[in-house]
Amino acid sequence: MLRYGLALTVGVWLAGGLLGGAAQAAQCGGDFNGFLSAMSREAAADGISQGVISQALGGVQQDQAVLNFDRRQRGTFRKSFEQYAATRVGAGRIKGGKAMLMRHASLLSRIEKQFGVPPEILVAIWGLESDFGRGDMGKLPVFRVLATMAHDCRRTELFQRELLAALKIVQRGDLRLNDMVGAYAGEIGQTQFLPSSYIKYGVDYDGNGHVDLRHSVPDVLASTANLLRANGWKAGGDYHQGSANFEAMREWNRSEVYRRTIGYFADKLAGQ
Fold it and tell me: In the chain, where are the structural domains located?
């Protein structure tokens, strides 16, 4: 889901405390290669290996298409809830969601017991973000996207933090460099986590020692539940507009239209 112009998803608004603000020393604008050199120094000071830095940032160039898309994003949620939900929650997606509820019933039950988030909400988010991992998770190189956005002076500190977080994902061994592909704000994986949220909320739920939000369904669903719980989700509570859980979903997406669509989809999956 590409909507960061109005509503950066999955906790980017909480990223200010992550990574200690180390990247603020890099100056936006000006020579792009000089900016990358400064970011490389910040990454090294933050404990990222020279090997990871050179592999991730070596040869990276600005992407004007990313900047152009960023400037067009402002109108993503100008549709009414009824108009938007009609395009996103159809009979086929509802059928697919119900199949996922059955296929992953045991996993979803364990996650609900641990994190308090009902299966229908997790599957609704999963379906809206990537059609349950079968759809488009983005095809853009994450480091090119984030370097481009960090160099742009409008939200440089925010995206410098995201760039450092993306380097940490590779440093930790969670994803290989060739798996670092995503959407127009650097979102990664089946439920489109920004790198800062990947680091902060990612859960190794399949127990293999890595948080893999591209390939591991247990990691994807548990991490999504962990983000919601960390931002105020209350087990057993209502999730419709006006509820505390509806507000907790604000850290997933600030758009009321999108959050109402999550709830609407979840209702359909629950047979309501």
Answer: 12-73+139-183, 77-137+200-269
Which pair of structure tokens corresponds to residue 16?
């200010």
Amino acid at 245: N
> Residue 238: what are its φ and ψ, rounded to 5°?
-65, 150
Dihedral Cα 17, 18, 23, 27, nearest 10 deg: -50
| pTM, rounded to two decimals | 0.89
| CATH class of the region 77-137+200-269 | mainly alpha
Quickly list DSSP for 27-90: PPSS-HHHHHHHHHHHHHHTT--HHHHHHHHTT----HHHHHHHHHGGGTT-S-HHHHHHHHS-
> What are the pLDDT digits (tens) for 214-235?
999 999 999 999 999 999 999 9
Short-list 137, 151, 128, 135, CA closest to 186: 137
Q: How does residue 79 score in pLDDT terms, banded at 50, 70 and 90?
A: confident
